[in-house]
Amino acid sequence: MKVGITLPQFRDSAEPAIEVALDAEAAGLDGVFVFDHLWPIGQPDRPAIHSLALLGALAAETQRLNIGTLVSRVGLLPDAVLVNALASVHRMVGDRLVAGVGSGDRLSKAENDAYGIAFPPAAERLAQVGRVADALRAKGITTWIGGRSAATRDLAVEHADALNLWEAPVDDVAVEHGVAVTWGGLVQPDVDLRVLLGGLAAAGATWAVLAPVGFEWHEAVTAIASSAPAVRQ
Fold first, then answer.
1. Number of compact structural domains in the chain
2. Which of 14, 77, 87, 115 might form a disulfide with 82, Cβ 3.0–4.6 angstroms?
3. 107 pLDDT exceeds 90?
């Protein structure tokens, strides 16, 4: 199982995110991932570095790491713009790119509403995810579809390289989904990372992407890196 980390993206500057990415690369982690939010969920007064701009910076600054979105939300940009932007990153980094795609949910709807961006019914958004995922895979880009509903799972089976389960219990990861499964979720300092990562690896996850909360960022990278080797054996 590969292990990655999200970045300090909700800042005025991209420099902290780049520094953490370089720290993660030096520590031997497998990847860094960016969110696609216009602000941190529930905190519209805070800034956010745009995911695609940050991916471009990470493409230039890193050498080995996988870089990816967790996840790009359809509808914030026209489908063709999103696909071509990710394809541009792919031309820079090749197979290091992981394009996670998702439909958004009730927690992210406020961002659409604030900027006058349509938020169609779930079935329409999922169909859009499928079309975007097909276009990305046609360009040779590794593509995950994020979500935990049965409809999302079925979509990932047909249109993606993996299903990303955000904060799913380990037992849910272990279910036979018909497609490779990756996991992402928040972790706090009181979480036993070795137990978490070991459980996810045993359940069959191919990736675990950890989003630290309450850590100092260098300490988070160190803690995750020191817990990761056992799941790679």
1. 1
2. 77
3. no
